[in-house]
Hints:
- The protein has helices spanning 33-45, 61-70, 90-108, and strands spanning 3-5, 12-14, 17-19, 50-54, 78-82, 115-116.
- By secondary structure, it is α/β, with parallel strands linked by helices.
Amino acid sequence: MKYKQLGKSGLKVSELCLGTMGFGTEWKWGADKDNSVKIMESFANAGGNFIDTANRYTEGSSERIIGEYIKPNRDHFVIATKYSLHDNNQRQCIRQQPQKHDAQCRRKSETITDRFY
């Protein structure tokens, strides 16, 4: 796996980013927790460290599954998450940003997010 620096952040991320919209079955499709973990293990074993998620992916299950998986090796992974997916009122989104970030961190059982947009 090749790595690139993420902007001026100093973070080194794998050229491939694992999208996790399909982690969880709340939308009546997607990978259950066990299969999601297998996907992340395969990705990590191939050298991947960059994972993308969002506040609304499978109503938060994606973030919970990722959080449980990365917890023992948190420093290895770079997590990018979106806080306003499907929110139409941009003004309200900006006001709710801190609360949404806090909720997302709770789901992932962590206190920081590497990339929040």
